[in-house]
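One chain given next:
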Amino acid sequence: MPLARGIAAVMIDLDGTLLDTAPDIAAAAERMLAKLDLPARRPEEIRDFIGKGIPNLVRRCLPDDAGDARAAALQSEALALFQEFYFEESGRRTAVYPGVLEGLERFRDMRLRLACVTNKVARYTVPLLERMGMTAYFELVVSGDTLERKKPDPMQLAHICAAFSLAPSAALMIGDSANDVLAARAAGCPVLCVSYGYTEGGDVHDLPCDAIVDSLSEAANILKITWS
């Protein structure tokens, strides 16, 4: 994997890459649907809705047989409820994926600069990283509302490269979804995908990434071996 030569920073997605947040998202969605007296969704369905932001997830949870005016009003009410419930649920069931802490420690030992880049807004991102004991690993956290645009737009990744004074080729993106790959490709950054995570029902092997790893610790091994 020659692309690893010269890597000086690693940018890492949050949901589905660092943390398994789907149980908390599903719990908030279930509460939202119950409050609106709407049919429940299976947790597996809700998991496949993760990836393009909360408004999109909420819209996909709602029935699609309402009229345009009713749908718009329902979407607005549902979004407000979900945001309230998710703020309460976030972190209750979330788990750190295997190999994540080991990988972060190894990245840090290799003196790589670390950034977390997510489409989740800062209101949820910062408290969640703090609750999971991960804040100290990241020099920079770029949330979904930090800038005007978010993944799959390359703006967040370009912002991190500029903040670190690095060429895009020196900043490795690690994620789990098409959003991560598209953002990295548009920014000119190398990109790895984890074999787990949230792919909106797709197959991670279909994504045009540079390689697929089973854990962040494996990604660290690849970088270390390439450098040695």
Notes: The chain has a mean pLDDT of 92. The first helix runs from residue 22 to 35. The radius of gyration is 18 Å. The CA atoms of residues 20 and 95 lie 5 Å apart.
